[in-house]
């Protein structure tokens, strides 16, 4: 992967999320990678599902340019806004590493983080769920019944989001954990319409 300066650098913590997205994406299905950064997850999906339609978006022009360099079909804009209209109720997988670090915890990140990347890639608001909640609220209009929502997150965020997911019609909400049992992601399926 080519990574330009100031573009979010993919982390090993995202690998299980990408693998799960591959499992949920049919061979000729459709996936959207929101907050794509360098396009790493979208590129992995394309490599494993070469006949699938994989689109990506990011609000950062540098990230979109980097993703395009990595042969990703990337669009500049906020979450789902820049994507083609023909995706309504037809997407199999929405996946993303949206910014989810609580704003008060940004100073606790590794010291050199902001030497290479910008806070835009990390800042998820007061409890880290501002952008996650927006993805959760907007994805149902694109996901087909049975489609998957996969988001990277951390800490207590799965608990903070579970009620909202259920209220929006998601089912089979599960937490993805690392080898230490810490929350690293969230998987939910769009229920029947």
- The helix-and-strand class reads alpha/beta
How far apart are the first and last residues' alpha carbons, in Å? 38 Å
Strand content: 15-25%
Total strands: the figure is 7
Radius of gyration: 15 Å
- In the CATH hierarchy, the third-tier topology is known as Rossmann fold
CATH architectural group: 3-Layer(aba) Sandwich
Q: How many domains in all?
A: 1
Taken from the alpha-carbon principal axes, the silhouette is globular
Strand order of the largest sheet: 3-2-1-4-5-7-6
Overview of the molecule:
There is one protein chain. This protein has 193 residues and is an alpha/beta fold. The chain is built from 6 helices and 7 strands. It has a 7-stranded mixed beta sheet with strand order 3-2-1-4-5-7-6, with helices on both faces. It is globular and about 45 Å long.
Keyword list:
6 helices; 7 strands; alpha/beta; 7-stranded mixed β-sheet; 193 residues
